[in-house]
Amino acid sequence: MKFETLTIHKGNHITDKNCPVVQPITLSTTFEHGNEGGVLYTRASNPNRNSLEELLAAMEKGADAAAFSSGNAAGTAVYQALEPGSHIVAPDDMYHGLHNSMVQLFAGVLEVTFVDMSDLEAVKNAIRPNTKLFWVESPSNPLLKITDIRAIAQLAKAQGAIMACDNTFATPVFQNPLDLGADIVMHSSTKYFGGHSDILGGALITKEKDAFWNKIRTVQRVGGAVPSPADCYWLTRSIRTLAYRMKGHAEHAMILAEFLLNHPRVEKVYFPGLKSHPGHAIAASQMSGFGGVVSFTVKGGAEDADRVVSRLKYFVNATSLGGVESLIERRAAVEGPDTLTPPNLLRVSVGLEHTDDLLEDMNQALG
Ligand SMILES: *Cc1c(COP(=O)(O)O)cnc(C)c1O
After folding, report:
1. Where are the extended beta strands (E) located within 29-85?
2. Atom of ligand 1 nearest to the CA of 137
3. Residue 336 has pLDDT above 90, yes or no
4. Is 113 exposed, middle or buried (0-12, 13-18, 19+ CB in 10 A)?
5. How crowded is the C-beta side of 107, counted as CA atoms within 13 Å?
6. Do 60 and 205 meet the contact criterion of CB atoms below 8 Å apart?
7. CA-CA distance, 63 to 121, in Å (whole number)?
8. 349: Cβ below 6 Å to ligand 1?
């Protein structure tokens, strides 16, 4: 089955004798002992989560998937599954919430080195005898840095370590890290999977059902950061249109990036689809599209960037990304004082509004 087909049909299990076309929500938290589905208690598993996990595994071509109540819970489950004293190599530009998870929740338990993962020598130099995890995010948030996933996977293999990739920005429509050598893929399904800014969720997908995956399953079931049956239902519903939404987001992002590149008030544009992006060639070798997030710096300082945001009509000044509506935010203001993000950088989640309206709005706001 092709991606579009499997996202529409996978994990739709009908047991009702009235034969509804769509699997309904099963709200019951508990199930009769000895039932055919083998479902016991909804924290451990339930019909809607099972269906969602089957769909997620198929989307990333994995052996299994685990759904979580947020992207942060999914990422944190990977760190929780490591032995105490393990060392992680992680990107210097990564989703700040998971950076905070590593630094704040695992201080004294895990060691972390943050490096520029687009620099392979820097990654090699960061490896220690106890390195057990390479954490990759490509494209990264918010600088859209590109990491050579194949090359990091080789380093991880030589080290006997796990390589996990946050694939939230690319989505499996454009990038399959497991095909490139990753062991685990992570998603914030709050973003493109949900696609309408109304569901919080996260996911992990594994290449193999191995001992490390069993630990992650234990973290999921015992830790209990699981999505509700209703959240699983809505997420499954949203994923049915993912392929078509992503095509729109990527097309619109490319149009906006090219517009910004030629605008006199814009200093620099960060988008891996542009030939001028330092990671463009690697991006083109591992992605079939460049995603829907564009960052750019406005000439001047933070106040000049804030002024552009305040003048926009269609781009909502809000955090997050991946919804049908365009969002914009000055990222450094959200990430706090220790961020590497330039103060005049705006991150745009390019939505599915008509690009004529988006360009006209951006043009008047830039002035
Ligand atoms: C949003 C995001 C996360 C965290 O996901 P939540 O669902 O907000 O917990 C992780 N990684 C990336 C790249 C994200 O954009």
Report:
1. 64-68
2. 13
3. no
4. middle
5. 5
6. yes
7. 32
8. no
- 10 Å CB burial of residue 219 (0-12, 13-18, 19+) is buried
**CB-CB contact of 152 with 136 (8 Å):** yes
Q: Residue length, the chain?
A: 367
Angle at 93 between CA 132 and CA 85, to 5 degrees: 25
Give CA–CA dist 279/281, Å, rounded. Answer: 6
Please tell me what DSSP assigns to residue 161. Answer: -
Please work out whether the CB of residue 291 comes within 6 Å of at least one atom of ligand 1: no
- Paired residues of 114 in beta bridges: 90
Predicted confidence band of residue 265 (pLDDT cuts 50, 70, 90)? very high
184-188 and 202-206: which strand pairing? antiparallel
3-state helix, strand, coil in the chain (%, to 5): 40, 15, 45
pTM above 0.85, yes or no: yes
Q: What does the block give as tokens for 302?
A: 């933070």
pLDDT at 117: 96
- Just list the catalytic residues: 43, 95, 166, 191
- Best CA proximity match to 192, nearest among 323, 54, 53: 323
State how far the Cα of 335 lies from the Cα of 312, in Å rounded to an integer: 22
pLDDT of res. 335: 84
Average pLDDT of span 348-362: 98
The two three-digit tokens of residue 3, written as one number: 């991606």
The reply to whether ligand 1 has any atom less than 6 angstroms from the CB of 98 is yes
Distance 99 CA to ligand 1 centre (A): 11
Please give the share of the chain, as a percent, with pLDDT higher than 70.
100
Average pLDDT over residues 115-121: 96
- What is the signed CA dihedral for 177, 192, 361, 288, rounded to 10 degrees? 30
**268: β partners:** 297
Helix (H) or strand (E) holding 341: none
Q: For residues 330 and 327, give the distance between their C-alpha atoms in angstroms, rounded to a whole number.
A: 11
